[in-house]
Design a protein that fits this description.
Number of domains: 4
Structural class: alpha/beta
Helix content: 10-25%
Radius of gyration: 36 Å
Number of helices: 12
Amino acid sequence: MTKKRVIVVATLILCLISSKVLAAPKTTRIYGDDRYETAAKVCNTGWKGKSNYAVVVSGENFPDAVSAAPLAKKYNAPILLTNKNVLNMYTSVELKRLGVKNVFLVGQKGVISQNVEDGLKAMGIKTTRIGGKDRYETSLEVAKKLGKPKQIAIVNGSYFEDAVSMAPIAAIKGMPILMVGKDSVDSKVMSYINSNKKAEQIYVIGGEDIISRKVFNSIPNAKRVGKGDKYQRNIDIINYFRNEMNMDNLFLASGRSYADALAGSTLAALDNGFILLGDSPLPSSTTKFLSTEVVNNLTILGGPSIIGYDLESAAKYLPKEVSYVSDVYDNIYQNDDYTPPKSLIARASDGSKVEVDVNWNLKKVNTSKPGLFTFYGDVEGYYRRVALNLVVNPIPIKIPDVYKTSYSRYDFVLPEKVLATLSDGTSTELPVVWDYGTQQKNSPGLYVFNGTVDRYNKKVKLTLQITDTGGGYPSNIFDDTTMEIVQGEPYKLPKTVLDKVTNKNMPVTWNTRSIDTSKTGIVRLEGTVKDSPYKAYMTLIVLPKIKDIPEIRVRKVQGEYYYLPNQILATTSDDRNIWVDVTWDNPFIDMGTPQTYYIKGRVKHYDKPVLLVLEVVSN
């Protein structure tokens, strides 16, 4: 009895999840230095004796190649690859070993050159070239070689994945694989389809994003199979035809390249098996499928550059269940679109990483308000709910005009940041990009600059006054300072300002009539300096009072990296959530020892300590 064979890209092996108790599978490897030698060794595995026929396709591009599997099966022939301009040496060796007398070349001379055909003829091999002006006509010409079909497969000619997924099925059922465009069908291909409209079934592979409703409706007796991405479509194909094939013979190949999957499809057809596509990390749809299948023998297709030996050894320790899924932390800005992740990377019970689907308890996220929002999701087979912590950052809603004075435009440097009021009521400095305009003029007068701040829907205006004060004295001879105070709390304004000309501190009296510390925001103060004709200026920022900072709880697995947050969420006196800087008393944590840590932190303008409870659990 022929042993069961499973062809696999070994990078997938680490990611298999199974609820069943599985014995360590027996693993073997088929590979060469490149795709040509790999195809030759697949041929050597499946065709030990002689073969009168072989199918030779391009190893450089997929369009003409991927419809060849049903033709190869009809003549019990392997599929071998060649370079465009010269017959590949590995293919030549196999043709001689098999004693091949007839070769089907799939593709016109622009795909496989006359030089390759001449080389085959020089070996005493009869050649039959099958090809059209493009991939669509080539698939049609291959179909004509199969005779009157009972069933037909229709795939999008821009992708190889659906064709190789259908390849062993189509080969066993004598079903041609025809290529169409997403929104159109070649006229000759459509004529062939209409001439076979009485076929038992015509399968259209993929959803409307792959083959449109317009094309689907033009095909008689059509049935869609497969939807979603290429991996989900591959699984849907397997599940649809599973009762007609042998599920014990599963052939896994990379979803990133057609060559290994196509060569493997002929081997799969010998045992009525399927091609399963995968990648690393393993897609969640493939993971779900493998969790229900028992794999006894793994034949790894590919060399060390594709399949590491460490991954090969890991095949003996397939994961059994999900042991840990980290909570999700995402940052966006107010009014941004946001879609929760459909899948997460989890840790399996053997320590490997796997991709798992997650179902969140929401359909749409409202990002119209800033703040911290927490949602919860469920992962099948996982003991607790997963949290999605979404921070919606505030955006600037008000940036006051900026007024500056200078005695020289040449010496004035435009500020890199401007003070802004954010949508959560807080204030901060934000980077600004200025439109320079008439910057080189230096005569007395007013100069206006417009600036752009990210996510602010207006232009920022800066008015610069160049003053000829005589004697070279600038009009803004005093330091323009900024001071922060807390809403409703007492404060003291500075009693002196620095004279930048004499470098002396001068007494100042501030005009405080515009100050209302019961409201947050930005206040511009003007001061009178003793014995000076010039005014002093200061910007007063009224910060919201912090009312509460809740206890923070974090759960991490022993050995994982964890960095204490630099900012935490606080509730203000007006019930808004804002992010504040925090300094921790003990920022260094031993993550190698399972225990619970109680870490205290300090926040400016908050008179209570902040508490973070970190639970380190064993893995």
